[in-house]
Structures are given as structure tokens and as C-alpha cells.
Amino acid sequence: MRRGEPAPVPVAKADPVVAAAPVEPQPPDAPKRPLRGHPHPARCGVVLLLIPVAAAFGSATHTRLEQQAQALRARVDHVPAVLLEDTYLAPDSPEYTIRPAGSRSTARACWATPHGERVGAVPTDMPAKAGQTVTIDVDADGNLTGPVPDSRENTVLALTAACGVWALAAGAVLLSTALARRLFTRNRLRRWAQEWNQFDIPPREPR
Fold it and tell me: What pTM was estimated for this model as a whole?
């Protein structure tokens, strides 16, 4: 090296002992890990196809409930009843459970039936005094009837039934497909392990 020339920079040599780890080849039928967070398209399609089925079930349920409500209204008669006492807030007891929604007041009253007069607790929409006449709903035998469900209540029940059917059917489809996929993947992994074990067997020496 001549005077005035810069000293050469030492270059690190690659260690021949350290080698890259070999990449083991995989069989062509090795199962691939699905992307997490992405559901299978086939299962999503089946779940979406269940929506019209649930809607049809809800529509049929609403029609059936409306027919039952109409049949109940046809058997209900509106008759006058004379209050025997002043109205009061209905207590929580089985005797006062049959009353329309919003009827908080009640009182004992007397009304006529085909088998004679009957006395019982009747619901009232507003406070009233003894001796006043109110209209109550009774059946053909003169028994006090409960409230007949209106169209709004039937719609809520039908919608709840449709959502319940869709949830149960979708859960059954997702659970069955997930179980089948798990079993199929396990079988493929087992076959894959058997093939790798065959590669690990050393060849026999000729005699």
C-alpha cells in the first residue's frame, strides 16, 4: 500500500456453515388454510336463500292469526252490564286477568245471559260510578271473554315467528356445514401425514 492511499475496508465473508433452511415441498392436495374473518360464499348464499322461506312462513302465520281473530270476533257479543259498585284499580289476581289492554279500572257488575243473570268483575276503560251501564264482551254462554288480538299484535307475532324460523334454520345450516368442513379437513390432513410417512421410510437394500 502506497503512502497517502486510504486503507482498504474489510469485507465480511459469508459463513459457509450457516445455510438457508430448506423449504419442504407440499403435496398438491395439501389443504390450504382459509382466510380468517371471511365466511364461505356457499354458506352465505344458503343463509340468504332462507330469508324468502322465513318471510313466507311469517306471512302464513299472520294469515292464520288473522283468521283466528276474525273467528273470535264472530263469537263475541257486546252486552250491557250494570255496575254494582264504583270502579277501582284492578289488583293483580286471577279474577281480574281477563281485561283488554289499557283497562286499569274494574268493578263488579251484573249482566243478562241466556241462562239468567250473572255477576262478576268486569273491566272498564274509565272510572265510573255504581249504577252506570258499561259494555262488555261475552261469548254465546254469557261468559266474560278476554281481549281479541288486533292486527298490530298479529303482525308482531308473525314477524317474531319469521325471525325465529330464519335464525334456527340459518344456525342449523352453518353448524352442519362447519362440522362437515372440519371432518373433511381432518381426513385430508390424515392422508397428507400418511403420504409424508411413506417418504420417510428408507429404501430396502438389495440382497
Answer: 0.53
Spatial distance between the Cα atoms of 5 and 83, rounded to a whole number of angstroms: 125
Structural contact between residues 79 and 111, judged by C-beta atoms closer than 8 angstroms: yes
Question: Tell me, what amino acid is at 149?
Answer: P
In the chain, domain spans: 41-67+152-198, 77-146
For residues 94 and 192, the model is more confident at 192
- Cell 283497562, located at residue: 103
Torsion over CA: 175, 177, 181, 183 (sign): positive
* Distance between CA atoms of residues 127 and 104, nearest Å: 9
C-alpha cell read off for 177: 356445514
- The length of the chain in residues reads 207
Q: What is the DSSP string of 4-17?
A: TSPPPPP-PPPPSS
Question: What's the rounded Cα separation, in Å, for the pair 68 and 57?
Answer: 17
